[in-house]
Amino acid sequence: MFITKLASAAALALVVTSTHAQDAKPTDSQIAHVAYTAGVIDIEAAKLALTKSKSAPVRAFATDMVRDHSAVNDKALALVKKLKVTPEDNGTSKELVKNAEASRASLSKLSGAAFDSAYVENEVAYHNAVNGALETVLIPDASNGELKALLVTGLKIFQGHEQHAEHLAATLK
Fold first, then answer.
1. Coil, helix or strand for 151?
2. Exposed, middle or buried, 150 (CB in 10 Å: 0-12/13-18/19+)?
3. What is the pLDDT of residue 119?
């Protein structure tokens, strides 16, 4: 039940991103904000896992999420500063934040193995949705070559996260 809700939220975020792209091509400042927001959301989820989980593999995964997403977001901030671009909040980033808040609220109510399983399944669904948005909307629609390159690098890292989360989820069953 919880996993289905989280997967639906992640799928909704992807649909919103895709719908936004069909209506009007997102600007680089909107793309940068969506990508940065997605990273912040995963960092916050990982920090929650670090406070709640007692599982060494789950904690190690969460530590990786904080490290990797923070590193990519730091590079994104440096790039937008260099390019003198102001990230622009938009419907997609707002929807991502709204869904993330609901997911964190649901996760916060869980503990032990139930939390670990729900957190990891959320990570699978979330990375799947964000990776799909990167592949189909954000990377193709990015105009700036440096932004596009950063998104491609992020996608490679986040595809590894999705695979890691899938493997971890299988071990928790």
1. helix
2. buried
3. 97
Task: Please indicate, yes or no, whether the overall pTM of this predicted structure exceeds 0.90.
Answer: no
**Between vectors from CA 168 to CA 53 and to CA 123, what angle results, nearest 5°?**
70
Structure tokens at 60: 């190690």
Q: Which residue do the tokens 């912040």 mark?
A: 40
What are 130's two structure tokens?
């964000």
State how far the Cα of 65 lies from the Cα of 138, in Å rounded to an integer: 21
118-162 pLDDT, tens digit per residue, is 999 999 999 999 999 999 999 999 999 999 999 999 999 999 999
Q: Give the span between the Cα atoms of 44 and 116, in whole angstroms.
A: 15
**How far is it, in rounded angstroms, from Cα 69 to Cα 126?**
13
In CATH, the number for domain 2-16+27-172 is: 1.20.1260.10
Residue in 133, 148, 141, 160 with CA at minimum distance from that of residue 67: 160
Phi-psi bin for 84: left (phi > 0), alpha (psi -120 to 50), beta? left
